[in-house]
Every structure is written in structure tokens, then in C-alpha cells.
Amino acid sequence: MQNTTELNNKPKRFIYDFNPEETEITMETKNLEIYYGKSLAMQNADLKFEKNTITALIGPSGSGKSTFLRSLNRMNDGIATVKGEILYQGVNINQPKIDVYEVRRRIGMVFQRPNPFAKSIYDNVTFALQRRGVHDKKTLDRVVETTLKQAAVWDQVKDSLNKSALSLSGGQAQRVCIARALAVQPDVLLLDEPASALDPVSTQQLEATLRELKKDYTIIIVTHNMQQAARLSDYTVFFNMGEAIEYNKTRKVFTRPKVQMTDDYVSGNFG
Ligand SMILES: Nc1ncnc2c1ncn2[C@@H]1O[C@H](COP(=O)(O)OP(=O)(O)OP(=O)(O)O)[C@@H](O)[C@H]1O
């Protein structure tokens, strides 16, 4: 990690080459600075996320992708100090008075390793709703069917909803975790390397699922897989050393990047 002085002395190279005013913005970050203790882990990442698109966050290990992603739904609370504004539908959610549970309901997260609870598939999907006092069986049944269908795993699990989610394959478990995130009807889905523990077939299925989901959700995904970012996302942000370096339509980032460092990274020549 860089210290504050080193980061502040670096030239600003951030390239932002599409016109966000023409688009509908679901989330936006402004003047973010994220500290672990006294160490500055992220700055210069004023980004806008367009509704119903997929944005890939790419960059070398330790460049701050997860730090940035986890701040978007306040998952860094208690771990890091996040300064600056995180706007969700125009409201700065990075304020103490904001209900963090509501933030996480609207901005859901799926983690790198599938993390189903040691409960049935049915109870995994309905967990948050049941905790909120929703016990009407018809409602819960409907949510289970709808979200498992959205997550493209319904056909595989519909006859075993009472089986433990721990008995599922990695790919199935990850899609059940997506259904669990969708059950509370979020707007935004944050995914932190959701395919890194999956085989190529499950990865392909997950990508197909995300392509479908973007019709209804705004999706931001951290990935180390360049091919995945190139095939799946509409926009790509390249991070390095705690800064957003280049942000553009994915096609441009991968075919005509404006910054040499981005070019080196996407073409696999990054030192
Ligand atoms: N909980 C933490 N406490 C202290 N430092 C942290 C913590 N989490 C991350 N960091 C540091 O912040 C910097 C950015 O880490 P981060 O995990 O966000 O990078 P990343 O780009 O997501 O990396 P990777 O691709 O390896 O997951 C790194 O220097 C890391 O060591």
C-alpha cells in the first residue's frame, strides 16, 4: 500500500472518456479517499455507474478494486475510513445518518467464494425476508421461484429446495447466493470475483445469468479475468495503486486504451 504522500505526488492520469450526462446514473463516487488506519488505499476514483449496465473493475492485485467495491454498500464500515461522497440515486449514502441495512438491501453483494448458509436452499434465499418478519408462505414461495429463475438455477434445484445449500456444487451455490441477494429486491449488484472459484462451464453460466440480470439491475463486478471483463461488461475501470487510471467503454479499453499502463495490463505485459 502507498502512503498518502506518495499517492498525492503522483501525476493525475485518470482518463474518463464517455459522456455520463447522456446516461442514467445509478451510483456515483466523488472525492473518495479510503484509509486503512492511516494508510491511504484509494483515491482519484470519481466514477459514475450507468443504470442497467455491467461495469468491470480490473487491475493488479492490491490495486484497490475490492476496497472500492466494498465501500459502495458500506461493507467497509468498521474496517476502513471512507471519506467523500457515494451517491446512490443522487443521495450521499456515506453519512452516519443513513440506514446501512437499507443501503445493503438496495445495493446487494455477492462474494468471491460462494458462501451459502448452513441452511436449506429455500431458507438461504428467504433468510433476509424471514428476518424482516415476512413469513407468508405464498410470498416466500414466489420469491424463491422468481429469484432462483433469475439466477438461472431453478431447474437444477426446484425439486430439492429443502436440501442443504452446502450440498450444492460451487456454481450452483454461487447462483443460489445471487438469488439470495436478489430476494430483497436490490437495484445494484456488486460482485467481487464471483467466478474465481468456478470451473469454465459454471463461469459461462454465471456470465449468461449476469447478462440477463443487467436488464433489471446495475452490475459492478471485480474480475481478474480479462476475457471475462471484455465479453461481459459495458464499461471497464482500470485501477492501479489505489487509483482509477482509465475508465471507458469496455471495447475502447481493450482495443484502444488511452493510457500505456492500461494497454500493458490488458495485453498481459504489466510488470
Ligand atoms: N482490511 C484491510 N486492512 C488493511 N489493509 C487492507 C485491508 N484490505 C485491503 N487492504 C490493503 O488495501 C490495498 C488494496 O487492497 P484490495 O484488496 O482492495 O485490492 P484488490 O485490487 O481488490 O486486490 P486483489 O485483486 O488481490 O483482491 C492493498 O494494499 C491491501 O493490502
From TrEMBL:
Record keywords, A-Z: ATP-binding, Cell membrane, Membrane, Nucleotide-binding, Phosphate transport, Translocase, Transport
UniProt xrefs under SMART domains: AAA (SM00382)
Top-rank taxon, per record: Bacteria
Domain ABC transporter: from-to ranges: 27-266
Annotated GO CC locations: membrane
A GO MF term: ATP hydrolysis activity
One GO BP annotation of this record: phosphate ion transmembrane transport
Cited NCBIfam families: 3a0107s01c2
Protein name: Phosphate ABC transporter ATPase
Organism (species): Lentilactobacillus sunkii DSM 19904
